[in-house]
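User: I'm writing a tutorial on reading structure tokens. Could you give me a worked example: one chain, its sequence, then its tokens, then a sentence or two explaining what the tokens reveal?
Assistant: Sure. Here is the example chain.
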Amino acid sequence: MTAPADRALLLLADLGEASARAHTEATLVPAVSAVLARHLPLRRLDLRRGAAAPGAPEIRRGAGGEAIAVFALRDAEGAVGCAAMELGEGAALDLSPALLEALGRLLAVALRQVQVLGRVAAIARRAQGEKRALKEELDRVALPREVVARGPAMRAIFLEMVPLVARQDTTVLVRGETGTGKEVIARRIHALSRRAERPFLAVNCGALPEGLVESALFGHERGAFTGAAARHLGTFERASGGTLLLDEIGELPRAAQAKLLRVLQEGEIERVGGEGAVRVSVRVIAATHRPLEAMVASGAFREDLYYRLQVFPIVVPPLRERPEDLEPLTRVIVEKVAASFGRRPPRVSAEAMARLRAHDWPGNVRELENVIERSMVMSTGDELILSAPLAAAPREAGRAMTYREAAQRCIEDALRASGGKIYGEDGAAAALGLKPTTLQSKMRKLGIRRVDGEKG
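And here are its predicted structure tokens:
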């Protein structure tokens, strides 16, 4: 075999290897040009898909006397286009018609290959988009089992409002009475959002110790205060990239409200004792049962923060206004409690359901959960026995109690039941599900005096 023939075979082999690695026409042309430049004094390569080509390869002379090899791109399936190579002096290969035809066949196959790969990639992208759209639609219409939404109000929340707002990073304010399921809505928003794979954190602003609110939310540096032995990352930093639920936002002190406003506006937090801002990317969902408008009017809540939170409000109806959800909710809760107890779910009789329907549910879904769990502890058979009394709290006719009246009555009832005792398992704080210090703080705010003779 002659040396020119060897060089021609080496050129074709290098071209075949380079074209096999190319996946688009944009990467094919540079790869082919680089190979040709190693074997030929190539100045420029022009591949024209669909262009007419001469019947036989030919070498023409350009206006400057340069050699231009023109040949068809044709394979077994037919013509693909035309190629033109502008060459300088000193070609090491004899560009015979046979070699140019071989180049044309190889490049035609390579062009068809990247064309097919392009179609496959387009189909894959379209399929991925359709899959994503289908998943979003399924997520929208197929609610998790723990989410019960039979009535129009709850269906509007879970099937319309939540999927819409979940697509954006808009701040959401979920409002409703205690125990209506505000955290369930927040978790659903997170699950349908682009942040679903990142953290979801929930913090109860009303349960934070008064002097450590800012440290809990925004973190602190070592030595920032007595006992700060190491740097602590607050909930905003730990939730960065994900979603943070600020429950009972109305309980947040005004100093912390100002810092929260900065986070919402600037996307920055500053640790207690820190000297610089820290960037965070957090989707904030706030929740409250408090009348924020009245709190703004009284100065207890910042007006600018209120409007910053009130971008997309969701109002959750109380359980007494959604009677169609009571029976399916009961079934779901019975199954959940039974699973935690490691037993088969007991049957809920028609009589038991009638008693549940007759109740006013001032504590909403949380009260229903407590009633069912307490009843299942007492029910050892196959039927649920509602052993706990379900009498509704008395109300004044013609007027709903204000939040202050309701809170005051609740605390006073708990104090009477505990004989004035606040601390301990049988104290009023435990009965209300509060820390003793939190209860004492609320008593001071509401003007409730300690019972004479109370020892703790």
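What the tokens reveal: Residues 394-398 have pLDDT under 50 and may be disordered. DSSP finds 16 helices and eleven strands in the chain.
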